[in-house]
Amino acid sequence: MNHVTATHAWLRRNLFSDAFSGLTTLLLLAGAFCWLPGLIDWMLLQAVFEPDAAACHAVNHAGACWGVVADKYRFILFGRYPYAEQWRPLLATAMLLLVIATSGLRLMSRAPLLAAWALALPAFLILMGGGIVGLSPVGSDQWGGLPLTLLLATMGMLLALPLAILVALGRQSGLPLLRGLCMLYVELVRGVPLISVLFLASFLFPIILPQGFSIDVLLRVQAGIVLFAAAYLSETIRGGLQAVSGGQHDAAAALGLDRWQAMRWIILPQALRAVIPSIMNSAVSVFKDTSLVTVVSLYELTGSLALALAGDAEWRSFYLEGYLFIGLIYWIGCYAMSCFSRTLESGK
User: 129 lies in which domain range?
Assistant: First the structure.
């Protein structure tokens, strides 16, 4: 009886709290009743799961053709990376995901976790690039798919966060020149879309370099993502710094701490904790925005799918199923980051 009462209370509180909420719930249920059977029929009951292009064409889009994923999944996940060497991006991706998951689930204390990151990132680059320890060299222009997406997003946030903290502190500096430079950087970067920054990093930056000197396009694009993400993160962190009450500064001064000690041990930890949801929102945005690097000929997940289907007339018409597969990967990544954010907020 208590269980029934609790269920009734939950339904009333979350789904039927007022007339508008109840009407919305009923409309959503009606929509699900109308559309869900057809969706299930298309996605599962009439679908073709074998990598058989003839069977998919015979269905004529009456059912989903998951065979395109079964046939092209290696190209989608690893791009143009040499087929015989694809164990390397697989191992590198698994290793990086393991460290990320360990961080999110807080399975290690701080020192071992920092050591794991310090080992995982160089190992990832060694596995992908090769050229040492008996691994054949693979140029960054052949990197693609999920490993490239993870690399751009992970390094983007890891490098953008400390830069954003410095810029946020610079915006609050008493030095007018430093404060003005930080403000100029933030306003310039936030005033243009990311795709413009990527174009500048990929095409304009090499022009201004001395003749005979070049920087790998992947490094330039990664730097563009870092600078773009840091500009937005710095404003988020500055808002967190302003949210810390003046009493905390007074308490730090009473303890005999100087300005930087107070900032490091008292003010900044509180500010960062207050803006965890916003920081994670930026991480989600960076993760999804990596799809824009396709415009500068770096083929992450979406670019790898386009390459896989562009050269194969048999599968070209089944792009929808491929994008749904990629969308599932992005959703899993974004949902995992949301869970990580809730864990950090709870302090558990």
Answer: 85-134
Does the residue 256 lie in any domain?
yes
Q: Are residues 195 and 124 in the same domain?
A: no
Closest CA to 343 of 103, 97, 96, 95: 103
Write the pLDDT tens digit of every residue in 285-317.
Answer: 999 999 999 988 899 999 999 988 887 888 988
Cβ(179)–Cβ(187) below 8 Å = no
- Looking up tokens 């003010």 gives 267
The residue type of 323 is: Y
Same domain for 316 and 204?
yes
* 285, 167: one domain: yes
Cβ atoms of residues 100 and 154 within 8 Å:
yes
If asked whether residues 89 and 72 sit together in one domain, one would say: no
3-state secondary structure string across 9-33: HHHHHHCCCCHHHHHHHHHHHHHHH
Domain shared by 257 and 322, yes or no: yes
**What is the mean predicted confidence (pLDDT) over 123-133?**
93
225 in the same domain as 126 = no
Identify the CA nearest to 124 among candidates 152, 147, 156.
Answer: 147
Residues 6+ positions from 298 with CB-CB distance below 8 Å: 141, 143, 144, 148, 217, 218, 221
CA distance 309 to 42: 21
Is residue 287 a part of any domain in this protein?
Answer: yes
* Tokens coding 314: 């048999």
Q: Is the overall model pTM greater than 0.70, yes or no?
A: yes
- Per DSSP, the three-state class of 245 is coil
Asked, for residue 154, whether it belongs to a domain, the answer is: yes
Cβ atoms of 59 and 65 closer than 8 Å: yes
